[in-house]
Amino acid sequence: MKILEKHVLSEFSRLLLMALAGFVVLFITVDLFENIDTLIAHKVPPLASFVLRDGFVGTSAADQKGAHILDPRTGEPAGRSVVCATVVARTGMEADALSTALYVLGADAGLALVERRGAWGFLVEHSPDGRRVARTSSGFTERLGLVLAPGIA
């Protein structure tokens, strides 16, 4: 390829990439402003809060995306009684994996797994009488200062 052809091709490629990047930014900005009312209207209040001093947080729930987490033992949607499961772990990958496992396994088996892995977890589940109840691994409330939202026991 001749030097002039290489130069023209590189300049064209650079301009094409800049134009595509600009289009993507413009598209995302317009889409955000068109859907901002929907995003605000579907704001879900937090079920709890805590102070993270170190580590990473992972949360699994079905309130925003619907039943998208499947129980690998049955192939059915998981966590029918679980509202959400949150884990604080040493790495983000571990927090994500453990929060999903906690969501699938439920309070007893899930919190035992979280503790065996040296992490901290809590979940909110529906009790048999329909109330929302929080369950935590040992040390979660003390270490992270867990504060539950009104209406959660």
How would you characterize the overall build of this protein?
By secondary structure, this protein is an alpha+beta fold. Helices cover about 45% and strands about 20% of the residues. It contains 4 helices and 6 strands, in the order H-E-E-E-H-H-E-E-H-E. It has helices at about 5-40, 90-105, 105-115, 140-145; strands at about 50, 55-60, 80-90, 120-125, 130-135, 145-150. It has a 4-stranded antiparallel β-sheet with strand order 2-3-4-5, covered by helices on one side. Strand 4 and strand 5 (about 130-135) form a beta hairpin. The longest helix is centred in the N-terminal third of the chain and has 39 residues, at about 5-40. It is elongated.
Quick rundown:
The protein is of the alpha+beta class and 153 residues long. 44% of the residues lie in helices and 20% in strands.
What structural keywords apply?
four-stranded antiparallel β-sheet; 153 residues; two-stranded antiparallel ribbon; 20% strand; alpha+beta; 6 strands; single chain
- Give the helix tally: 4
Tell me the structural class.
Answer: alpha+beta
Distance between the termini: 73 Å
Q: State the major sheet.
A: 4 strands, antiparallel
Strand order of the largest sheet: 2-3-4-5
Low-confidence stretches: none
Which word captures the global form?
elongated
Radius of gyration: 23 Å
State the order of secondary-structure elements, H for helix, E for strand: HEEEHHEEHE
- Range of helix content: 40-55%
- Averaging pLDDT over every residue, what do you get? 80
**Strand element count:** 6
DSSP strand content: 15-25%
